[in-house]
Amino acid sequence: MPPIAQKFESWLKPDGAGLACAPGAFHIDPTRAVERAIITHGHSDHARPGHGAVLATAETIAIMKARLGPNAAGSFQELRYGESLTLGGVTVRLVPAGHILGSAQVVLEHKGCRAVVSGDYKRRFDPKAAPFELVACDLFVTEATFGLPVFRHEPDAREIGRLLASVAANADRTHLIGAYGLGKIQRIIALLRAYGYDRPIWLHGASQPLCDLYAALGIRLGELRLVSEAPDKLPGEIVLCPPSALKDRWSRRLTDPVTAFASGWMRVRGRARQHGVELPLVISDHCDWPELIATIAETGAEEVWVTHGREDALVHQIGLMGKRGRALALVGYEEEDAE
Amino acid sequence: MKAFADLLDRLTYSPSRNAKLRLMRDYFRATPDPDRGWALCVLTDGLPFSFPLRRTLTELVATKIDPELFRLSRDYVGDTAETIALVWPDASSLNSDAPPPCGEGLGVGVATIATIPPPGASRHPPRQGEGTTTESEGKPSPRLSSIVAELALIGRNDLGPRLETWLDGLDVTGRWALLKLLTGALRVGVSARLAKTAVADMAGFTVGDIEEVWHALTPPYEPLFAWIEGRAPRPDVANAPVFRPLMLSHPLEAADWAALAFDQFSAEWKWDGIRVQIVGADGTARLYSRTGDEIGQSFPDVTAGLRFNAVLDGELLVLRGGEVAPFNDLQQRLNRKGVSKRQMEQFPAHVRLYDLLIDDGEDLRQLPFAARRARLETWHARVRPARTDLSALIQAADKDALQALWAATRAIGIEGIMLKRRDSPYVAGRPKGLWWKWKRAPLTLDCVLMYAQRGSGKRSSYYSDYTFGAWRQADGGALELVPVGKAYFGFTDAELLEIDRWVRNNTTESFGPVRAVAPRLVFEAAFDAVQRSTRHKSGVAMRFPRIHRIRWDKPAAEADRLETLMAMIEA
Asked: For chain A, which domains are there?
């Protein structure tokens, strides 16, 4: 019997555009335009325009159309979670990845072997994403955004508690929270609502369309208003904006803002200080280190490929776990807060 | 310890000076003696004892995490103390299914996956309190002063086990604070001076008031707090042979020069030695560096001749036959516990005086510079201490004449010019507009970026330290790059971002935190001087190198050659 790596490489391997499945004639999250693409989720580094045909969940397709335009791909085909179809002898199934609304893992079966391509994923509760579904497999293709032992995300409850405590203690200041526009902002809003914050939440203009899209997909976020329509400088209020707006002149319209940033990177002081953050919130849409390695263990995969992130440490760890790890070193995927 | 850990944590994230001052002032007011005094000690001079910490920590951390994983984590975080604090297992996960140690399955303490269920109709934040973590529930954390007291007595072999117990009992913030305290490198964006300012702010004093008495006190500074709080008289320093805070100068920019009122200033040459303060009392003299460290033990040749009751400001130099030797010669005498007779003969030390602060108990610091200078001249003519002379005043007819003298400093091997306002009192710190240092214009060279290394602290995830090279003819005749310098400042944050991206896209090889890059990006390096060096492959070393401009436009092949740099070496 050939070693597992070779067994898979006959039908799944990285090429210049990303992870390619030759018999199925498709790529997964390709970083340049291809004939056929399976898209795991709507973040712009995974969902790029110009493909001939796109296969994804309905939510991901809606996000792609909203962000990239209705003609972002030659054609769109929807695949529901759990349903499967066969492409060139390869069975394809999408299962929830828990990363953002519509995010999916791609389960591939061919020649009696099963590979799971995780896309980006998380294991924690997210009121706005279907929870991660564990699929046992022979090959697990994982991300490693937080693939270092220093990354341990705090419980969301604790971070939201810190935010609300800071809001209570600084009634004369605006709390300005930088967060990734797709998924993170909506999750923070949902968490705030879940913990009883019922005041209007204020948005930077750039953050509005995706919140509207979530609303159109039936997700309730409570009362949202635009900062540009604010009656005053919003003392005591919570404002959400893209990370890039934190230090922009735009923020001058707020009252002595407490600058916060919601990201897994906030675990490391240096990263928080780079952004001039006063209130770092460790809230992430990715797995932390213990979750990554627990997931790898739980899939039972003997072979683990790492797509992007801090792959050195994770591949080393996979070796310690008695499995074969391999860094694919795929380029073109941005880090969590790059948008 | 918890209050102190919270203080350090919040200082890290408070960008504004005023917020930092408020945090420290509130802490000093709310915290009893002696804890606050030890906190002040940690924020200023650091704990007065040291430990074999590196090895202890390395051994300790190896019992918790695979060494390779630790190394990669350390490279990423850029700070050993913080890395250990982050990877150390949390108290809560110790009690859950104990993770196997490294090498046996999972590498690091893995708690079971935490999923937070949606709360019910709770109208309250899940946890009260100002955004700080609680330490292992219910167990009071040890007091800062008792940690310090234990550390002062702890034996070499007991440190590891004790440290492990403390770390196990603390949360991530507490672990970080404890390790920062032990390693002494806080990096919380607070200078010693700012911490002293916070003490002064407790009751309307100035930082000068604190600095004046500072060197007569020792931690935990109970008499200092007693005085600030009006419970005791001011600590007596009048006749104590202690360091007095120095007056420092500002770099002179073009706009400052344009605005400078020439006729109100005195000028002196800028000497290329180190700043010292001589404190003479009771027939002996102490020599202090600019930070108040006593360095007299390395310079008995100087201190032997100083028998007077006065405090003087000057420059420590190596002087041969009346000529100032290069800084490198002085370097041979610095940072040594003792000094040999041969070294004293080979590198004879000397102090060039430029100010008189206290003369026989009379404090002159409120007098204008011109008056102090006159007193200094009279004093020196009378006392004539061996191995000293006066820093001469430069005579220039007008501003243009002085500018011409400055322009010629490089030619005559002088570092620049000092400008001192004649009516300025001697003010501790760096008051603006009174003393200026006007360094000679730098040399520049177009170099090619060869290696980039990740920075530390705030820059830990950026490639921010650059090694650049110049071309030279290799043995076979082809051109090769040879490293000539290394710099990590001189660019803006926006430029850093661009260079960082460029480095990632042009990497040819990685060695841990260092990347070799394709020879394509040209930096115009600026530096004060270039010297011969046997420690560098190129045979030269730049002094004070920095990135002057990034030449995105310039082809690497047109960068400068090593010969050009060699020609800049001063005789």
From this structure: 4-150+286-327 (3.60.15.10), 156-281 (3.40.50)
